[in-house]
Amino acid sequence: MSEMNIAVFAADYSLSENAKALAERLNLPLALSDQESFDYLLVLTPDYLALQKTNDPSSPLYIDFLHGKINYRAKRASIKNETLARAMGLKGKIHPRIIDATGGLAADSFMLASLGFEVTLVERSPIIYVLLEDGMRRAKEDPHTASIVSRIKLVHADALLWLQELAKEDRPDIIYLDPMFPQRKKSALPQKKMLILHDVVGEDADASRLLNTALACAIKRVVVKRPRLAEILALSPVPSFALLGSSSRFDVYLL
After folding, report:
1. Structure confidence at residue 188 as a pLDDT band (50, 70, 90)
2. C-beta neighbour count of 127 within 10 angstroms
3. 3-class SS of residue 210
4. Which of 36, 46, 82, 95 minimizes the number of CB atoms within 10 Å of its CB?
5. Using CB atoms within 10 A of its CB, is residue 232 exposed (0-12), middle (13-18) or buried (19+)?
6. Would you say 103 and 176 are in contact if contact means Cβ atoms under 8 Å apart?
7. In this predicted structure, what is the pLDDT of residue 1?
């Protein structure tokens, strides 16, 4: 994980006590202005909690299940048109236990939940976890998304250890892994929110170990999301098959 200089900041004076409590919870400093010398600010606003780069406040990162691409995709999702759903072998009348072990921005988990499946979402970064927590809280207050996020169970843990400690009766049918992609070097720059995520979380150096742990834990299959032309995550074992999307590939390991 990446080490960044992050502080908590209240964008509105009325949120000062909330900001203080959040800073204490995360063991982070409390910024008294947005001009202090931090790499990032975790900003409490009246509308949402956001992670904002101090030298570029124009594109804050926050979790929004109510609007934008996540919501647009979920409204149009079906088992047939979603490559991930097909990679998982999902069927409408069968409801497997699914663990998304690399939570991130939760776009894929939200899509799966919109199709009616229950997902346990595991995120180890405390910063990303509180952003997810805030996004889910706001989604639960909206009648259009409340039922969807009610099917997502959010867990703050290191999935590598958490999966190893699962009781046998709690083992999932499917484990989904979407480890942080390496930053692109020759292609167009990714979206600013992905650059922020990469800055704060860093590359998942233990992704191969997490795959092996997932293979030992899952009952039916493990699905790994990769860049379309990237090498497989680990040299062994080899995926049973792969499904290609427009920019991503899903490597499927049948158990």
Report:
1. very low
2. 20
3. helix
4. 46
5. middle
6. no
7. 45
Q: Which CATH architecture has domain 68-254?
A: 3-Layer(aba) Sandwich (3.40)
Are the CB atoms for 176 and 98 separated by under 8 Å?
yes
- Structural domain boundaries in the chain: 6-61, 68-254
Question: Would you list the DSSP string of 119-179?
Answer: EEEEE--HHHHHHHHHHHHHHHTSTTTHHHHTTEEEEES-HHHHHHT--GGG--SEEEE-P
Coil, helix or strand at residue 23: helix
Do 177 and 207 form a contact (C-beta atoms < 8 A)? yes
**Range with top average pLDDT, 76-85, 168-177, 202-211:** 168-177
Q: Which residues contact 45 (CB under 8 A, 6 or more apart)?
A: 11, 12, 15
Q: Confirm if 115 and 90 have CB atoms less than 8 A apart.
A: yes
Among 85, 74, 228, 98, CA closest to 147: 74
Give the CA distances from residue 56 to residues 29, 38, 60, 64, 203, in Å, rounded to whole numbers and listed in that order: 20, 12, 8, 20, 22
> How confident is the model over 144-167, as a mean pLDDT?
96
6-61 CATH? 3.40.1630
Q: In what order do the strands lie in the sheet with 6-10?
A: 6-10, 40-44, 49-53, 56-61
**pTM score, whole prediction:** 0.91
SS3 189: coil
Quote the CA–CA distance of 42 and 151 in Å, as a whole number: 27
